[in-house]
Design goal:
Layout lengths: L1 E2 L2 E2 L5 H4 L2 H8 L3 E7 L2 E6 L14 H10 L1
Antiparallel strand pairs: 1-2, 3-4
């Protein structure tokens, strides 16, 4: 991992993609979750403030955005 040309972390993915290293890189808290089979996802903790996931799309919101824009 590089940040402004400086090595933040070096090594295998499992050793490098950590909560601490991602904080150093992005200056935000990130939750690193194991999905199994060697897969991981990284979720910025700021997203936890939302009560429910944003799924699908609402045509009324798109219409309002067009009117406002």
């Amino acid at each position: 991992m590089l940040k402004k040309g400086t090595v933040v972390a070096d090594g295998r993915t499992g050793e490098v993609v950590t909560r601490n290293n991602l904080y150093q890189l992005y200056n935000t808290h990130v939750d690193v979750r194991e999905l199994g089979g060697g897969c991981r996802i990284c979720v910025p903790e700021a997203l936890y403030q939302f009560k429910r996931p944003m799924t699908g799309f609402n045509p009324a919101i798109v219409k309002l955005a067009r009117v406002a824009g």
